[in-house]
Amino acid sequence: MDLHGGNIYRLQREGKENLLDYSSNINPLGVPEKFKERVVNSFHILEKYPDPEYVELRENIAKYNGVKLENIVVGNGATEILFLHMKAMKPKKTLIVAPAFAEYKRALDTIESEILYYPLLEENSWNLDVENFLKELPQCDLVVICNPNNPTGSFIPLEKIERINSELEKRGIKLFIDEAFIEFVEDWENQTAILLKSKNIFIMRALTKFFAVPGVRLGYGITFDSEVLKKMESYKEPWSVNSFAELAGKTMLWDSEYIETTEKWIAEEKKWFFEESQKIENIRTYKTNVNFVLVKLLKYNSSYVREKMIEKDVVVRDASNFQYLNESYIRLAIKNRENNIKVLKALEEVMR
Predict the structure, then answer these.
(1) pTM to 2 decimal places
(2) Mind listing the pLDDT tens digit for each residue in 128-138?
(3) C-alpha R_g of the chain
(4) What's the rounded Cα separation, in Å, for the pair 310 and 276?
(5) How far apart are alpha carbons 57 and 73 in whole angstroms?
(6) What are the two backbone dihedrals, phi and then psi, of residue 325, each rounded to the nearest 5 degrees?
(7) How many domains are there within the chain?
(8) What strands, in cross-sheet order, belong to the sheet with 174-178?
């Protein structure tokens, strides 16, 4: 199984064309038109190197998040930020709240950090029991939390993040929060951990999901600890963010029409998708805060369902390789209504 699921390219090489890719959680609105227009009119920027300090890009990201230029580090996708941070911090022992993104482990493996896991529980609808978490928290150097969580779609409100961070600070434990999907959360501007302005927290973000540009590798980190930023910059390769990725960050963050349309779409569609999925026999779905849904299969296993869905021209994410999940789980993206209807109908036929 592929580490991140679908691998649509492999399926296409095998002769499977015109597939609906529901293994990838990308905004169905597609690439913002304003960014497309700027790209068409900006090919001349390829004739020179980007600013090695990315000042204008970082200023835009800082303004978007209500912080300062010196709080921002940019990278070739969020993955570069993740690996840079772990390399800079070198935690000897790390606790990951799971299930979660597989690259956390890979990044920690490169620095030989001992990895522990803390489970989100199905009986709690995958929500973190904060007081129990703090009660059972082992001594470690770093805690990693994906918020909102991928693949469960659960979300820890800001007041609970503040409670966690306060306790971690007392114990000398750093907190890494992955907010790659936070812009799909309702009222996210008032829920982001950035508002705590804590030196103890590092926040990772990406433009990939919300702005539908996985092919434009741009991620960033936010920290209020200047020493952490200096360490990361010392390991960073020069010009890792290319000119069009830089242009994306300077354009899309201010596309208010695209942002508002996306927020309206996800608020309506995730509610509709959940309610409709509840009508399908032999599955259980969980309420989500974002643009994907975790599905428990009460009949058949994930590999069987994935293959049967491919026969119906739909690719789903086999979630069995997430920590604490098994072959009873798949993950479905939420996209536009027309395709969502097709996918739920296909899943209903498979499960029946």
Answers:
(1) 0.94
(2) 999 999 999 99
(3) 20
(4) 21
(5) 10
(6) -100, 175
(7) 2
(8) 72-75, 219-223, 201-206, 174-178, 142-146, 93-98, 114-119
